[in-house]
Amino acid sequence: MDINSVRNNGINQVNEAFNTQNKVNQAEQGKKAPGDKIEISQEAKMLQTNKVSPKDFAKIRERINTDFYNSDEVVGKVADSILKEIASK
């Protein structure tokens, strides 16, 4: 049986490869992965600043629960507003 000696050169090559891989891994961890992006329109920002008071919110919730907004009168007003906006464009 032949036993070959281990050379320092072979161990140094393994260490170099290991260190190189560590540097690559650390560099990759430092980079930020591309993420999702969200854009909020000016109109949405304005709506957020004009918050609904809890009292008004309760009134709206009550109207939803009692089908107030499903009445012919309300649906007609909404339809008229939509038509006016479409016609103005």
Q: How many E strands? A: 0
* pLDDT averaged residue by residue: 79
* Helix share bin: 55-70%
* Approximate strand percentage: under 5%
| Largest pleated sheet | none
Sequence stretches where pLDDT stays below 50 over 5 or more residues: none
Radius of gyration: 34 Å
- Discrete helix count: 4
| Helix and strand composition category | mainly alpha
Spell out the helices and strands N to C: HHHH
Distance between the termini: 93 Å
**Coarse morphology:** rod-shaped
What labels would you give this structure?
89 residues; 4 helices; 66% helix
Describe this structure in words.
66% of the residues lie in helices and 0% in strands. The protein is rod-shaped, with a radius of gyration of 34 Å. The chain has 89 residues and is mostly helical. It contains 4 helices and no strands.
Topology:
Layout: H1 8-30, H2 42-49, H3 54-65, H4 72-87
Structure at a glance:
The chain is an all-alpha fold. The chain is 66% helix and 0% strand.
